[in-house]
Design brief:
2 copies of one chain form a homodimer. By secondary structure, the first copy, chain A, is mainly α. Helix content of chain A is about 70%, strand content about 5%. Chain A binds a DNA duplex (30 and 30 nucleotides) through helix 4 and helix 5.
DNA sequence: ATTAGTTGCTAAGTTAGTTAGCGATTGTAC
DNA sequence: GTACAATCGCTAACTAACTTAGCAACTAAT
């Protein structure tokens, strides 16, 4: 006998855009997994490198971003240092801290893996008009906001 | 000195929709991580359950979908059986195979975690017109196709 | 000056993956 | 029909990446 949640989803009519949205998230996850494998990295390493390429971070900041313990973050940074992808540097003002900085060679190697995806998506994006892109952006921003809200609040069943 | 890939991305103009697209993929990844944690599952378990809720699968099929070894797939199914989420059943025609079937309670528990996301995205989707949704779907399908193509072909640097 | 909190690490342990190999079974070639 | 190849799903031994607990050095707050 199906429970209430199963009954809900059985009767649920999903639009093409909604199905495509969920499939995109799943495809993005799979591609990241494939890229990590090609790069010889774990997915955590890949995500960490993507963040570090934006700006240097401390291991504790990285731990918070990746939602892992500081011990795990230390280990992860150790492995990225071993590969020559990043370097640890002393913090200018706070002697407790270090700054993890991506090396030039690390950045180049990461981009060699990520660029095909950037280029492919850029090409798709360029094939839409400004008006169309505005609609798409509004939809995607709405989806991002909805998902982000769920990250921080517990589901209704926890009451 | 920046390499060629770094120089490319430095000069790269990204549109709002392109930035939103990449941020959506990242937010989807984070939310899946959070949902897995809340459910007390690893991300592999969560992905496996999502697939099994669509249709029963054999451990070897699951291994291919998840891109893990059959040994890992066996272990994963073992743990899902231990939690009462799935059951193994003999295959009707092929005595080598088993079918992994989601239990009613497993399905209910998974949906309790996933439903808030479904509902939130459904609500967003409903706030767009048919014409707008058509544009969004075309964009998302294009993005999915582009990403799927990259899963199967090596990047240009491997030549 | 003292207390509270943060940073980043080590140690010991756990989880979930890997590779190698195997028996049972099915599929293919002859 | 027989022999061989391929597939399925598992076990064993090992590895990678995480966890919790705890610590010294340092900064923030009082």
């Amino acid at each position: 006998m199906a429970g209430p949640a199963s009954s809900f989803t059985e009767g649920w009519q999903q639009t093409g855009s909604l199905l495509a949205l969920r499939e995109l998230i799943e495809t993005g996850r799979r591609l990241r997994h494939v890229i990590a494998r090609r790069a010889g990295l774990s997915e955590s390493h890949l995500v960490a490198m993507e963040h570090l390429m934006r700006a240097p971070l401390g291991p504790a900041e990285l731990a918070r971003i990746l939602d892992v313990s500081t011990a795990a973050s230390t280990g992860l940074v150790d492995r990225l240092v071993q590969r020559g992808h990043v370097e640890r540097e002393a913090h200018e003002q706070d002697r407790r801290r270090t700054q993890v900085q991506v090396t030039d060679s690390g950045r180049e190697e990461m981009l060699a893996h990520l660029l095909p995806m950037f280029v492919a998506l850029d090409r798709l994006d360029a094939s839409f008009s400004d008006e169309e892109r505005a609609v798409v952006e509004r939809y995607l921003r709405g989806a991002i906001a909805a998902l982000q809200q769920l990250e921080t609040q517990p589901p209704p069943s926890e009451a």
